[in-house]
Amino acid sequence: MIQFANRLNTVQEYYFSKKLKEVRQLISEGKPIINLGIGSPDLQPPQPVIKAIQDSLFEEGAHKYQSYQGLPEFRNAVSKFYQEKYQVSINPENEVLPLMGSKEGIMHISLALLNEGDEVLIPNPGYPTYSSVTNLIGAKSVYYELDALNQWQPNFEELAQRDLSKVKLMWVNYPHMPTGTKALKDTYEQLIAFGKKHKIIIVNDNPYSFILNNEPKSILQVDGAKDIALELNSLSKSFNMAGWRVGKLIGNPTFLNEVLKVKTQMDSGMFYGIQKGAIKALELENDWFETQNKIYEARQQLVFELAERLECSFDRNTSGMFVWAKLQNEKKSEEMINDLLYNKHLFVAPGTVFGTQGEGYIRFSLCVSEEKIKEAISRV
After folding, report:
1. Residue ranges of the Aminotransferase class I/classII large domain (predicted)?
2. Tell me: the pLDDT tens digits for 341-377?
């Protein structure tokens, strides 16, 4: 009998991959499922971006292998974007590394930095990929708990009391997924000080900063941040380009060079046309974000109404493309979402997908039309 790699014993199939099979089966049986569980933008990318990729297909060299470090024009566009949107100066020559989406970056960073037995600080609740990749590498996931009482910010007093001698990497994600908590300047400053003191590399995963947020922030705005921090960013959410797989890693050239060693073994460069489209996206004016946010604001208000109908409580001052809602009367997350799925034909995400601190919560996606959200409201 074939024996598969032992590392697979540390992970399971991604929850949404598995659950969506069940959802598709219900749809095939004629059930009118409304999917409020997935954060995949349903809106179209900007029209100039579509035109840019179309035009690029006929340019010389468009279909050849591309540089692992991306087109110089792409890196320049990232640098200019960071300067204009975050007031952060980025050297396009050596402080930008293009990625096929942020999820790829999580794996590359982990492979470059972690040895077996190293420890990684991971937010709870948080993006499940941080822990699954850590486990696949053979490192150890060590969770730091976030909660509503502390505004879903790290508790630095509690962290300081731990044995951090084996911790090499800390994952941070603001605006936070799944709660939608916005980035705080004070938190970023404390993270940089914490990383320097304990020699822990801080990686901020930052794909949501322009969605329902008038004050986008980057951890690299903090003085000295590049000494110890990296930032992942993406075009998936902000420009409705999730399937294009365009991300970038920003920060210290020494760190990026080590990550590049891994990346060069994993792919053969990002497709030329996608880079040209990404350049056009990064050059767009702020009215693009304003138009998108009007759509998300209208959807958010309807999801608030839906959450209220389900007797949930929530924070109205959040960003990102989700609504994080607390169940009442100690209801369990999995029981609630199964009740909604089988009896109301509504699919939402249970908070437990994101960690033990997600028990008692559910997460609604805003990647659904107003018409469908209104239909969901009518069902409850």
Report:
1. 32-380
2. 999 999 999 999 999 999 999 999 999 999 999 999 9
In contact, 364 and 307? CB cutoff 8 Å: yes
Which contacts (CB < 8 Å, 24+ apart) does range 144-147 have?
Answer: 145/357, 146/176, 146/179, 146/357, 147/357
Residues 6+ away with beta carbon under 8 Å from 24: none
Q: What is the pLDDT of residue 22?
A: 80
Mean pLDDT along residues 316-327: 94
Query: Residue 98: enclosing H or E segment and its boundaries?
Result: strand 96-99
Could you tell me the CA-to-CA distances from 55 to 51, 103, 121, 276, 277 in Å, in that order? 6, 28, 44, 9, 9
* Dihedral (Cα; 260, 264, 267, 268), 10-degree rounding: 110
DSSP 314-362: E-SS--SSEEEEEPSTT--HHHHHHHIIIII-EE-EEGGGG-GGGTTEE
Give phi and psi for 240, each to the nearest 5: 60, 45
What local confidence, expressed as pLDDT, does residue 135 receive?
Answer: 92
pTM for the whole structure? 0.91
Q: Is the dihedral of CA 19, 332, 134, 248 positive or negative?
A: positive
Where are the alpha helices (H) located in the chain, listed in sequence order?
Answer: 15-28, 47-56, 72-86, 102-113, 128-137, 156-160, 185-198, 253-263, 272-282, 287-309, 333-339, 370-379
Contact 315, 300 (CB under 8 A): no
Strand 313-314's sheet: what is its strand order?
313-314, 322-326, 361-365, 349-350
Residue type, 159: L
In whole angstroms, give the CA distance from residue 12 to residue 135: 11
Gyration radius of the chain's alpha carbons: 21
| Relative orientation angle of helices 102-113 and 128-137, to the nearest 10 degrees | 30
7-11: long-range contacts, CB 8 A cutoff, minimum separation 24 = 7/135, 7/136, 7/138, 10/132, 10/135, 10/136, 11/132, 11/135, 11/136
How buried is residue 7: exposed, middle or buried, by Cβ count under 10 Å (0-12/13-18/19+)? exposed
Are the beta carbons of 112 and 261 closer than 8 angstroms? yes
